[in-house]
Design a protein that fits this description.
With 149 residues, the protein is mainly β. It has one helix spanning 2-19, and strands spanning 23-25, 33-35, 38-42, 48-53, 64-74, 82-92, 97-104, 112-114, 121-124, 130-134, 143-146. The protein starts with a helix and ends with a strand.
């Protein structure tokens, strides 16, 4: 009887990993490395990177000191949780702002879906652009997941 249960349940356990959704989020400042004005961090899935660039004249290997916010643009400039990550913004040691772009598998502007919806606030700009902003100090709160296409 136990053997029948194990044989019947085994496929279920092995397929559970396919149920898991891989979450990404803005990287923590400590996870960002910079050299010669080029800043990178590995994505949570380790299948891509976050990339940011500062003017070499403004930077002398400044360390990233704080997370400021994450910005998400919904598809078709309408309310919704599917769209693209605009950037995650940080401050470096000299006070300069650094925008990091999400680049899974070297491609940009892939569709993502917001997670932790209570952390993202919808904003409509003066010119009518709809975006979502996450200003929580814990960058992991600004979460999203890739949308399978």
């Amino acid at each position: 009887m136990k053997m029948k249960f194990l044989v019947a349940a085994a496929p279920l356990f092995f397929s559970m990993s396919s149920w898991a959704v891989s979450f990404e989020s803005c990287p923590a400042p400590a996870d960002i490395t910079g050299k010669y004005g080029i800043y990178t961090a590995t994505t949570a899935s380790a299948k891509g990177e976050w990339l940011g660039v500062l003017s070499p004249s403004a930077v002398q290997n400044q360390k990233v000191v704080s997370f400021e916010n994450g910005v998400f643009y919904p598809s078709n400039n309408a309310s919704g949780t599917v769209g693209t990550v605009g950037y995650c913004q940080y401050k470096v040691g000299n006070g300069e702002g650094l925008n990091m772009r999400y680049r899974p598998n070297e491609s940009s502007d892939v569709l993502v879906q917001l997670r932790n919806l209570d952390k993202w606030k919808q904003v409509t700009t003066e010119i009518g652009l709809v975006l979502y902003e996450c200003t929580n100090q814990a960058p992991g709160d600004c979460a999203f997941s890739d949308v399978e296409q």
